[in-house]
């Protein structure tokens, strides 16, 4: 391809709307253009990258026995009503009506469609295991689309669904996808970690997220440097310390704490450490108001809390709701004497002795609060955020924290959807059983953005060679020099003939402009045909990633270029 014929509208200035590096560079390098909030047009350079990522995904899915199909984007409400998700999925679901006033939605995911398809086609255990996948646009009406392709309302996704006769079969399918995803992201040239995660709205049991490590990542992950443990911060857990068996329970007393509302203020006022206090937070769920207790130096993990309560929604109670439920202003709520409110306590709280907690009246706290003696917890379960430097749950070494971009997730769904939608099979004894399912997603467009977040510098994108839009660009220093242009044309043709995807910059622009565009777009190799090519038969080959520049004889260029690309 010649740059004079390419649609590559590069920009010199950073667009004001772009907050993260990938968004800035995808706009500046002419890969995408905004159509609406969270919705983008992919220009030719982006389409080439996406095509390569899709091909890697297809090869790895097919290698594990996956079969590609294509399901409809527009899904009838009846399917979602049958699964029970039409009313609970939330405002992210794009809903629409046809001319007959029938309800439909734009697919954010395809559990319902694929399960109903398999329900109608699979009758016997002999037809499983079955791995079916598609690569397709998905739609989610994000409340706040941001970061370009990282959180959009329309995006490209690969979703695969596994169908097995039992949990043992699901374990095998899950492990196949775990390996396939590892292969995909390795082949895309990304540094990533698979981490334990929460299943969220999809549901199911075991799940792992594949996180590309990048400072700009939205998610925090905790990992151990001594073993393979890694978890999303929403999922991470560590063993709780037991109660001190030598501690003697002192008499419960109420003390005056005028104006001391925060944990830090109370601890300083009473001359104690924050970890000796009980933090009591009231939450409103779709069913009730509950009191969540964590140690004063901890934070509530709302995902864990939601799961522990089996609730659909959860939010902090406001000042009015706190007063109605406890009779006290926020900052003075505690578990002692709470009535008609369920208490869910973190195990660390139940291990405290002679702690401090709000007295459920203004300007007052209790000291010497002892769980089980002074209050009872209805639920005791891990509901706190784990922090870096805490012990790894597998080996005890210190956990470390990093930020990551989720590019893939795999779920064990079990029988959640097959039971709801009646997808059954007959086993070898003729007994009807629900199909055991898994689902596995890769954000294709997000993977492109994540690759940029991890591979860039001040000059532009640094594409891994496997997903670069082109492998190399040939730049004649002077487009007016006929011999330089002829030599550049010859190299361009030879490289394309041996399978090196090459661009020829034939524009009548200054060399500096061509070099800047090449760096901005991120071609792995830049081949410059200048005066030395005319006088000494040497061509400059510069590697975008390392900046290493070599002068290579003209007759060796095809062979050397292939050698260099094999290392990138």
TrEMBL record:
UniProt superkingdom: Bacteria
Reactions it catalyzes: tRNA(Pro) + L-proline + ATP = L-prolyl-tRNA(Pro) + AMP + diphosphate
A GO term for molecular function: transferase activity
EC number: 6.1.1.15
Transmembrane segment boundaries: none
InterPro entries: aa-tRNA-synt_IIb (IPR002314), aa-tRNA-synth_II (IPR006195), aa-tRNA-synth_II/BPL/LPL (IPR045864), Anticodon-bd (IPR004154), Anticodon-bd_dom_sf (IPR036621), Pro-tRNA-ligase_IIa (IPR002316), Pro-tRNA-synth_IIa_bac-type (IPR004500), Pro-tRNA-Synthase_IIa_type1 (IPR023717)
Domain annotation Aminoacyl-transfer RNA synthetases class-II family profile: ranges: 48-464
GO biological process terms, semicolon-separated: prolyl-tRNA aminoacylation
Pfam family membership, one: tRNA-synt_2b
Cellular compartments annotated: Cytoplasm
Record has Transmembrane as a keyword: no
GO-annotated cellular components: cytosol
Keywords tagged on the record: Aminoacyl-tRNA synthetase, ATP-binding, Cytoplasm, Ligase, Nucleotide-binding, Protein biosynthesis
Annotated coiled-coil segments of the chain: none
Main location: cytoplasm
Binding partners and assembly: Homodimer.
Domain notes: Consists of three domains: the N-terminal catalytic domain, the editing domain and the C-terminal anticodon-binding domain.
Similarity field: Belongs to the class-II aminoacyl-tRNA synthetase family. ProS type 1 subfamily.
Record function comment: Catalyzes the attachment of proline to tRNA(Pro) in a two-step reaction: proline is first activated by ATP to form Pro-AMP and then transferred to the acceptor end of tRNA(Pro). As ProRS can inadvertently accommodate and process non-cognate amino acids such as alanine and cysteine, to avoid such errors it has two additional distinct editing activities against alanine. One activity is designated as 'pretransfer' editing and involves the tRNA(Pro)-independent hydrolysis of activated Ala-AMP.
Protein name, per record: Proline--tRNA ligase
The organism's taxonomic lineage, starting at the top: Bacteria, Bacillati, Bacillota, Clostridia, Eubacteriales
Annotated gene: proS
């Amino acid at each position: 391809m010649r740059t004079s014929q390419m649609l590559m509208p590069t920009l010199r200035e950073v667009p004001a709307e772009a907050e993260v590096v990938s968004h800035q560079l995808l706009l500046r390098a002419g890969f995408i253009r905004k159509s609406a909030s969270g919705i983008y047009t992919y220009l030719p350079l982006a389409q080439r990258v996406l095509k390569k990522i899709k091909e890697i995904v297809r090869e790895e899915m097919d290698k594990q026995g996956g079969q590609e199909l294509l399901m409809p984007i527009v899904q009838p409400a009846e399917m979602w009503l049958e699964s029970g998700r039409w009313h609970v999925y939330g405002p992210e679901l794009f809903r629409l009506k046809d001319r007959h006033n029938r309800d439909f939605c734009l697919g954010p995911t395809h559990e319902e469609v694929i399960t109903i398809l398999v329900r109608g086609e699979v009758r016997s255990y002999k037809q499983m295991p079955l791995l079916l996948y598609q690569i397709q646009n998905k739609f989610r009406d994000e409340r706040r689309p941001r970061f370009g392709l990282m959180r959009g309302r329309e995006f490209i996704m690969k979703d695969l669904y596994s169908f097995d006769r039992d949990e043992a079969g699901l374990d095998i399918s899950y492990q196949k996808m775990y390996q396939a995803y590892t292969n995909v992201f390795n082949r895309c040239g990304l540094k990533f970690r698979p981490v334990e995660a929460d299943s969220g709205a999809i549901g199911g049991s075991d799940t792992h997220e594949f996180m590309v490590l990048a400072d700009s990542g939205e998610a925090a992950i905790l990992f151990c440097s001594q073993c393979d443990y890694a978890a999303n911060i929403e999922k991470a857990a560590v063993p709780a310390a037991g109660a001190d068996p030598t501690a003697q329970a002192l008499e419960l007393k109420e003390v005056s704490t005028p104006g001391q509302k925060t944990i830090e203020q109370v601890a300083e006022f009473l001359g104690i450490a924050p970890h000796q206090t009980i933090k009591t937070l009231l939450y409103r769920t779709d069913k009730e108001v509950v009191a969540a207790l964590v140690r004063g130096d901890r934070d509530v993990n709302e995902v864990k809390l939601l799961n522990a309560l089996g609730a659909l929604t959860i939010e902090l109670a406001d000042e009015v709701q706190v007063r109605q439920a406890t009779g006290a202003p926020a900052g003075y709520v505690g578990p002692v004497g709470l009535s008609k409110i369920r208490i869910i306590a973190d195990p660390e709280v139940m291990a405290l002795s002679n702690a401090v907690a709000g007295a459920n009246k203004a300007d007052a706290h209790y000291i010497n609060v002892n769980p089980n003696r002074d209050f009872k917890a209805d639920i005791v379960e891990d509901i706190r955020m784990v922090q870096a430097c805490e012990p790894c749950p597998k080996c005890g070494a210190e956990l470390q924290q990093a930020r990551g971009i989720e590019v893939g997730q795999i779920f064990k769904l079990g029988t959640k959807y097959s039971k709801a939608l009646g997808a059954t099979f007959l086993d070898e004894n003729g007994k009807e059983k629900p199909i055991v399912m898994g689902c596995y997603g890769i954000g294709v467009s997000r993977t492109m953005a994540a690759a940029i977040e991890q591979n860039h510098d001040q000059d532009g994108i640094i594409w891994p060679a496997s997903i670069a839009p082109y492998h190399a660009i040939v730049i004649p220093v002077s487009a007016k020099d006929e011999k330089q242009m002829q030599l550049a044309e010859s190299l361009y043709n030879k490289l394309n003939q041996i399978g090196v995807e090459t661009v020829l910059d034939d524009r009548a622009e200054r060399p500096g402009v061509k070099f800047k565009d090449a760096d901005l777009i991120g071609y792995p190799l830049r081949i410059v045909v200048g005066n030395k090519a005319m006088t000494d038969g040497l061509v400059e080959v510069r590697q975008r990633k390392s900046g290493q520049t070599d002068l290579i004889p003209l007759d060796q260029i095809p062979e050397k270029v292939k050698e260099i690309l094999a290392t990138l």
